[in-house]
Structure formats: structure tokens, C-alpha cells
Write a structure and sequence with these properties.
By secondary structure, the chain is mostly helical. It has helices spanning 3-32, 41-61, 71-79, 88-101, 107-118, 122-135, 140-154, 159-169, 176-187, 193-202, 210-217.
């Protein structure tokens, strides 16, 4: 599930707990009063009405990441805007809708992962990249994104991240998977020159990392 779905579930769960609490309070007050003549049913009916009204209001207003308005109308309004003007939350809402409309398309999940990773939300990004890979296991960009997200979570190249980078390196000419494999080798005290060399030959002439990769691949940067 996405963060948006979990947020909705949490809101509804809190509303249910509050409603149950109100009902319990009404019954307890009734019993402490000795029953009396009045029935507790009206109070309970009011609690139920409040719960239904709260649910209806939430469903009408839609999701909290967009300005107050019916969700469908807000979403349609967003689609008419220049995507470059979207906030992160607005872009995530559009991507979430795209994933609902095209359940087998990995791209909405991939772009969601990219946005979340850029925001430092590594755990959520990892879940989004995983959803993309469930739909396209050979999507090199998603494998690279998943590896980066796992590094962001753990602060190092874990075995799971390394596996993702190795798969990505076999599928793309991007030097990044090889840089991360070199980092993993260095963290483990292994010779990383082969990985740096593989990264170097994949870099463009104007890549700012090129000189570092050249030096590391030749052993000049080794301690």
C-alpha cells in the first residue's frame, strides 16, 4: 500500500475509535445514572450519525495533500495544469491516480519512488520501486532506484542493495551501478579497481566523476 492509502486508513481508524469511545461514554453515563426513564438509544443514534457524517465529509473532501475540494474535481483541475507547477504532494496524487488507472504500468510507481527518494523518504521510495519491479523485474532504472533507497535507509551498500546494483549494471550503460559496486568493495576491503574501471568507461567526457573514476581504477586513489 502507498503512504496515501495508509493515511486514509489511519484517519478512518481514528474516527472509528473516537465514535466507539463516545458510545461507551454515553452508555456508562446512562448506567451510572441508574438507568432512569430515558433510553440510551437516542444518544447512540447520535454517535452513529456523527460517524456517518464524518466519513461522508472525509470522502467528499478527498485527500489531505490537495486543497479542500472534492477529490475528483481537484484531480481533474491538476491534470489541466502544467506538471512543472505541481508541488510534490500534487505530483504524488497524480501518480497515485495513474497507478490506479493502469495497475500493470511500472512507470507511476517508478516516478513516485524518484520523487520520494529526492525528498529523503527512502523507506517509502524503496516500497514504490519494489512495486515498479513487481510489474517489470528488468526495469534497470527501478533497480538502481531501489539500490539507492536501500543505501539511504541503511547508510551503506547492503547485500540487498548490492544485488540490485549488480542487476542494474547488467541492464544499463549508466555508470552509477558500478560506482556503488565499487563502494561496496571498498567498504569490505576488497579491490575495487575493476568496478571503477567499468564506471569510467561508461562516463561521458564531461562527467564530473570521470577523473575520480580514472584515478581509482588505476589505483592512484587507493590508500
Amino acid at each position: 500500500m502507498t503512504l496515501l492509502v495508509w493515511t486514509q486508513i489511519a484517519v478512518l481508524a481514528i474516527a472509528a475509535v473516537l465514535t466507539a469511545g463516545a458510545a461507551f461514554w454515553a452508555l456508562r453515563a446512562y448506567r451510572r445514572a441508574g438507568g432512569g426513564v430515558a433510553s440510551p438509544i437516542p444518544a447512540l443514534v447520535v454517535c452513529g450519525a456523527v460517524a456517518v457524517a464524518a466519513l461522508g465529509t472525509y470522502l467528499f473532501l478527498g485527500r489531505p495533500e490537495l486543497p479542500d475540494a472534492p477529490y475528483a474535481a481537484r484531480l481533474e483541475a491538476l491534470k489541466d495544469r502544467d506538471p512543472r507547477s505541481y508541488t510534490v504532494d500534487e505530483a504524488l496524487a497524480i501518480l497515485n491516480e495513474a497507478s490506479r488507472e493502469n495497475a500493470n504500468d511500472p512507470l507511476p510507481y517508478f516516478y513516485t519512488g524518484q520523487l520520494l527518494l529526492d525528498q529523503g523518504r527512502a523507506e517509502e521510495a524503496a516500497r514504490a520501486f519494489d512495486m515498479a519491479l513487481r510489474r517489470d523485474p528488468l526495469m534497470a532504472e527501478a533497480l538502481l532506484g531501489l539500490g539507492r533507497a536501500l543505501v539511504g535507509i541503511e547508510g551503506r551498500v547492503t547485500p540487498e542493495a548490492l544485488a540490485a546494483f549488480q542487476q542494474a549494471g547488467a541492464l544499463t550503460n549508466d555508470p552509477a551501478p558500478w560506482i556503488y559496486q565499487a563502494m561496496a568493495a571498498m567498504e569490505e576491503g576488497r579491490d575495487a579497481r575493476t568496478f571503477w574501471s567499468e564506471a569510467y568507461v561508461r562516463m561521458n567526457e564531461d562527467d564530473p566523476r570521470r577523473e575520480m573514476a580514472r584515478r581509482m581504477s588505476s589505483g592512484e586513489g587507493a590508500e
